[in-house]
UniProtKB/TrEMBL annotation:
Signal peptide interval: none
One GO molecular-function entry: vitamin binding
The protein, known as: Vitamin K-dependent gamma-carboxylase
Pfam families: HTTM (PF05090), VKGC_lumenal_dom (PF22777)
Membrane topology of the entry: Multi-pass membrane protein
Main location: endoplasmic reticulum
GO cellular component terms given for this protein: endoplasmic reticulum membrane
Length: 765
């Protein structure tokens, strides 16, 4: 509800009766009675909540359809774009891999994808459903087409679950039950009886409350100690978007006050600020700024733009009429209606209507007095139950206990957005042949396209079951599967999340019981994070550090790469025994003691104390350090050559430094160090050029990228539809068609592989 939901031409008198009168027809001596303070602020009176009858009447109060119609159009448009992007139409063939052995993670194990061509048909139905919502064409059917296919795809893959995808499905479901096609719709052109007709107030109440919940519950979830103390998203403070704040604040305070403090305050207050007239303009500014930043910080598809599209729902419902009335007259034919008089609708409840007359004109009554019908009561009941359910679900994880793995269960419906950040240091999958006892290791992620299984017990169980089914194809009978996965959540110690001694294939799992093989989060060690920052601050730029915590009776088996030529273990708490496997030596370490471990060899670290042990690896990537030293020398030499201070002739292997700016100069380099140096220089130059590009160039680059992405989705869809209708063509023809669909912009096609290969093995790109 909102401060002024009474529709244009409907005046609410002191007894709650609605009086329809146009501006011209109303007698000059008649003025609407003064509204109470509560009605001015909230849009309804205390009396509207005193009985069931008055509440149903309030929720079905006739309201202008304009704002709902504009939102319907924007939501449909954004979903049309989203289907080719985050829903995956442009890469559907890579996602579903017909016939390939792939482990999948549906919400219900019986739910499986169709064959590839039929999956394209599912997406076609969803696309035309979203298009129909946008145009308001065959509205109910379009909504059903969209939500049925959308929820099928949503439940089909838990690895893509997130809060905003869940929100899209909820909004699509709500629009199915609403009268969203009564303003600026093709249905309105086909059926004049619904064109520009009132909609019941509960249509707006439901959407506004849903958006309020998204903001407010997200804020409540951020009252978590990790967020308040600035550990959840600390890496964001280093992003260039926060550079203006770094002019006046150190990066530590930008992280604590702007990233975490600002996010907390905005989420807690955004819903309230959008609701009230006095604060709405400020809310629009901060909310828009917030979502525009998020669109650059995260790869979240249409979410930022969808939330921007929801903000006008909190304005007066007739705002589009006033907005489009400002456009020139010759454009009015293609723009939404600006007439201030919606027509009556049977979906609404009208109180007694009084006709008013003047010497010039008699205004006919807009509608007869209407009684509460079953659909009015059902609309009110649905609104109340839905709102209660949405407030309850984010805190329902005491029911779905099997999903509670260091987070609040299926967080895709919890609105705890970005509350947790994770990093993985060590992942090992061990299999054991049930008949021969042979032990082997699997590449983490084999038979799957996602990494999300590493964090959730339910997905780990599905993955282990899938591996158990696939491994017999490779002469491994009755395989047992063991996982040793180390995770750091919100900058804590790296620690195990699952018990490595448990065969997950045979392990019990239920959505209604806790995982017995889930290792507890060592929250008692959280205060060490302050010490971590002190230790890391005391190290030079070439030295790296990893903090480990382990449980009594368990051990970590680790291999030190040859690149890490200077690696040591230092104990912080507890007692450990370090076994050097090849040397068959054991060393016991107490807190404060340290030992160097050899590179290119295995070692094991046993926790032998009664309490969990804490230790840290301190290492230097000697290969990277040597490479950086060579790069520095080459850069200095190149600068001397360019400014003419280098007097000695360059040897042949260094000659490419002179022609470094020429296209393909790195290909002529015979020395691998020089070649890598020139590639890195070219990449840095390209990155700098892209960052310094003007707005038009950025827009063009964005448009071209999106064009080729959408183009591939539609071409592959056309191929699939042809296959369903007339059958598969020859392999040669199909290969040519797919190659044509895969065509990319020339620059990306030429440079993409090289960009990705520039620094492989030498840190992140």
């Amino acid at each position: 509800m909102e401060a002024r939901d009474a529709t244009p031409g409907a005046l609410v008198n002191s007894t709650g009766e609605e009086q329809t009168a146009t501006k011209d027809a109303a007698p000059k001596k008649e003025t609407p009675q003064t509204k109470s303070k509560m009605e001015k602020v909230f849009g309804f009176r205390k009396e509207d909540l005193t009985s069931w009858h008055s509440l149903v009447t309030l929720l079905n109060r006739p309201t202008d359809p304009a704002s709902l119609g504009i939102f319907r159009c924007l939501f449909g448009l954004l979903m049309v774009i989203d289907i080719t992007q985050e829903r995956g139409l442009s890469h559907l063939d890579f996602k579903y891999l017909d016939g390939a052995p792939v482990c999948r993670f549906p919400l219900f194990n019986v739910l499986q994808p169709l064959s590839l061509d039929w999956m394209y048909l599912v997406y076609v139905v969803m696309f035309f459903g979203a298009l129909g919502i946008m145009l308001g064409c065959f509205y109910r059917l379009s909504c059903l087409m969209f939500i049925s296919t959308y929820w099928y795809i949503f439940f089909l893959d838990k690895t893509t679950w997130n809060n905003h995808s869940y929100l899209y499905g909820l909004i699509g479901f709500q629009l199915t039950l609403m009268d969203g096609n009564r303003y600026w719709s093709i249905d309105g052109l086909r059926r004049p009886s619904i064109r520009n007709a009132h909609v019941p107030l509960w249509n707006y109440t439901l959407l506004r409350t849903q958006i309020f919940i998204v903001y407010f519950i997200a804020g409540i979830k951020k009252l978590d100690a990790d967020w308040v103390e600035g550990y959840s998203m600390s890496y964001l403070a280093h992003h260039w978007l926060f550079d203006p704040f770094k002019v006046i604040l150190p990066v530590e305070l930008v992280n604590l006050l702007v990233v975490h403090g600002g996010g907390l305050v905005l989420d807690l207050t955004a819903g309230y600020l959008l609701f009230f007239d006095a604060t709405r303009p400020y809310a629009f500014f901060f909310v828009s700024y917030f979502h525009c930043m998020n669109s650059q910080l995260f790869s979240i598809g249409m979410f930022s733009y969808t939330m921007l599209a929801t903000s006008p729902l909190f304005c007066y419902a007739d705002w589009p009429r006033k907005f489009f009335a400002c456009f020139p007259e010759f454009l009015r034919a293609v723009l939404p209606l600006t007439s201030p008089d919606p027509q009556p609708s049977t979906s609404c409840v009208y109180n007694e209507i009084q006709s008013t007359s003047t010497e010039r004109q008699v205004t006919p009554p807009v509608a007869k007095a209407s009684k509460l019908r079953l659909k009015h009561k059902l609309g009110a009941i649905f609104t109340i139950l839905y709102i209660i359910e949405q407030f309850f679900l984010p805190y329902s994880h005491f029911i779905t206990q099997g999903y509670n793995n260091w987070t609040n269960g299926l967080y895709g419906y919890s609105w705890d957005m970005m509350v947790h950040s994770r990093s993985h240091q060590h992942v090992k999958i061990t299999y054991k042949d049930g008949k021969t006892g042979e032990i082997g290791y699997l590449n983490p992620g084999v038979f799957t396209q996602t990494r999300r299984w590493k964090d959730h017990g339910d997905m780990l169980k599905q993955y282990a079951t899938c591996l158990n089914q696939f491994l017999p194809r490779y002469n491994i009978s009755d395989p047992e599967i063991y996982f040793d996965i180390w995770v750091s959540i919100n900058e804590r110690f790296q620690q195990r999340i699952f018990d490595p001694r448990v065969d997950v294939v045979k392990a019990d799992w239920s959505p209604f019981r806790p995982n017995t093989w889930l290792m507890p989060l060592l929250v008692d060690l959280s205060p060490w994070r302050t010490k971590f920052q002190e230790i890391e601050g005391s190290l030079d730029n070439q030295t790296e550090i990893v903090f480990i915590a382990d449980f009594p009776g368990l051990h970590l088996e680790n291999f030190v790469s040859q690149d890490l030529g200077n690696t040591s273990i230092s104990v912080l708490q507890g007692k450990v025994n370090v076994e050097i496997v090849e040397e068959k030596k054991n060393f016991t370490l107490q807190p404060g003691e340290q030992i160097k471990v050899p590179a290119g060899a295995y070692h094991k670290v046993y926790t032998v104390s009664e309490d969990p042990s804490c230790y840290m690896y301190i290492y230097v990537n000697t290969t990277e350090a040597a490479l950086q030293e060579n790069f520095t020398k080459l850069l200095e030499l190149q600068e001397r050559v360019r400014n003419g201070t280098e007097t000695e002739p360059l040897p042949p292997e260094l000659q490419p430094l002179i022609t470094a700016d020429d296209e393909g100069s790195e290909l002529n380099a015979t020395d691998p160090i020089v070649q890598l140096f020139l590639k890195r220089q070219r990449r840095m130059k390209e990155v700098k050029k892209r960052r310094e590009a003007g707005a038009l160039e950025r827009l063009e680059r964005f448009a071209v990228k999106k064009y080729y992405t959408i183009r591939r989705g539609f071409l592959m869809t056309a191929i699939a539809m042809r296959n369903l209708v007339v059958g598969l063509p020859s392999l040669e023809q199909l290969t040519r068609e797919v190659a044509f669909a895969n065509m990319k912009e020339p620059q990306a096609e030429a440079n993409q592989d090289e960009r990705l290969k520039d620094e492989v093995g030498h840190g992140e790109l």
